[in-house]
Every structure is written in C-alpha cells, then in structure tokens.
Amino acid sequence: MAKKQVIIDTDCGIDDAQAIMMALAAPHIQVMGITCVFGNAAVENVCQNVLRVLSVCEREGIPVFRGSGGPLVGATKPVSDHFGTDGLGDVIKDKDPQWELKIQREHAVNAMIRLVTENQKQVSLVALGPLTNLALAVRLDPCFPQKLKDLYIMGGNMEGKGNVTLCAEFNFALDPESAYIVLEEFLCPTYLASWEYACRNALTWEFFEELINQDAAAAVFMKMITSKCWAYSKDAMRSKRDVYFGPGFVSYDAYAMSACIDGSVVTERIECPVRVELQGSMSRGMMALDRTNELKKSHSVFVLTKCDVAKLGQLLMASLRQPKK
C-alpha cells in the first residue's frame, strides 16, 4: 500500500512535538517535509525544536524548512510563554550551535508549493500553528489549494471560547488575516480541529502519566519537556481550561494529526461554511460557524466535534515508543 504523503506546518511547541512524533510513528505516513512558522516560539527556536524532535526519533533525514517569522499584517507580538520561551519548556540546555546548517536553504513557503506541485492531489497538509505560511502559499500560487489532497488545521473555535483572548484561539489570534485567507480560499477538503473539540475530547491525567513513563527515548524526552511547564500542570489548568471544560489532559495538535493519520478517530463532525472575524475589540480572530447559510458561501469545511478517545490514546502511546528498537 502506498504511503500517505504529509507535509507538517508547525510552530513546534510541546504539543506540536507530540503530533510530529505521532506522524513519525505511523507506519503508513510519509512525512515529506516539515515547514516552520512563528507561534509558540520565535521561528528560529521552532526550527531547532523540530530538529530536536527528529533527532530523538532518529529521523534526521526529513527536510526542515524555515518559514514566516511573524504574521501577514502588522508587527510581530512577543511570543507567549505557554510552552516556555523556547517552546519546549525551557529545560533543554545543550542547544545545537550548528542547527542552521541542518535547515534547508529553500524558504518553507516555496518548499510547500514545490512539494505539492510535484505530487498533485497526493499531499495532505497538516497545519499546527498560525496559518501564515499557507496564506503566503496561496498568494504566491493561487492554484496551490486545489493541488492539495486535503488540509487538516488545529486552530479556531466553535463557541466563541478563547484561550489567549476572550473569544479567540491561539493560532488564529496570532494571525487572523492568514486564518481568514485560508478559510476563504483553500477549497480543498478541510478538517478543523478547534480548541473546543480538543478540550471536549480530553484524556485523563492518569493517562498522561502512563504516556510519559513509557520506556523509550521519545517518552523520556516528552517527560523532560513537560516537567516544568505550567501548561502540563493539573493545578495551573484549574483556573484556565478547567473553568470551561472540567479537568483533563489535552495535547491540542494531536487532534488534527490523529484525524489525518486515521479518519476513523473522528466520530462526529459538522459540515458548514466558516469565517474568521477580523474586526471586533474582543472577537478578532474568532471563527464563526455559519450553519444557517447567512454568508451564502459556496465552500464548506468539516468542523470536528467528537472523537474516539481510545483510538487517540493508542496513537499517542505509539508516538512515544520511538525510535523503534
């Protein structure tokens, strides 16, 4: 059976690292390249984080490309400390001084266009960070979206609940214009794993303990990078995510990646047009679902609502049993 070809676009924080490992562990997935974007950390840190994940999993042959260092419009805001200042929990001391030599010379957006153009209707694009690289791709090549097989996005929200602003999810809030462009102009089949979808399909903290205490290099790495990170603390979540959704362990980007790896993970979804709000003092970056056809759009997306948590758990467990002995 031919392998499923995937490009991962990432702002590699801890949950991105988990999602990348999930793709690397899936035997039928071929990761063609990893494109980097600002978000959980500055894009230079993101590149180093991706290289680190590939090194842990002994998959250094996968090409890594540096992409956008800030949003499409306006100044780059200071990056959040959700996963520490470096995106991987601020626990890695031995940084690689040679990392830039290991990054491809080609810009991420050009690489994305080239790889998809060479393999038309074959490539699934999984977007785990702000959508800046994707918006630039469609500006450079207006036919780019129709060359994709499909698109999986971790981002946006369905109920106006926000995690960085009152009403907006992190990835969309960091670059609302790019999110708007992608959801207006990418007419390929598009699957959205929103913030609420991830939070409503949480795993238990007991599962998390079992996950990171497996006997493999990837699990040891994940245990280390989550060890001092408040986003992986039950106590810190009580005044944040738990207020909306109750307690649970959520690895956000894994929800988009798992849908790409195995469509049967998704058990319920809504098919409808969506639009990203660009104005609004409180709602900028919020995604609105148009279930009553007010917008008269020709294009719908699949907004994921329920998943098979047991299957998700199996994919997560497998992701940290690397490298294969």
From TrEMBL:
It comes from Perca flavescens (American yellow perch). This is Inosine/uridine-preferring nucleoside hydrolase domain-containing protein. Residues 6-312 form the Inosine/uridine-preferring nucleoside hydrolase domain. One of its GO terms (molecular function) is hydrolase activity, hydrolyzing N-glycosyl compounds. Belongs to the IUNH family. Pfam families: IU_nuc_hydro (PF01156). InterPro entries: Inosine/uridine_hydrolase_dom (IPR001910), IUN_hydrolase (IPR052775), Ribo_hydro-like (IPR036452). Signal peptide: none annotated. Gene3D superfamilies: Ribonucleoside hydrolase-like.
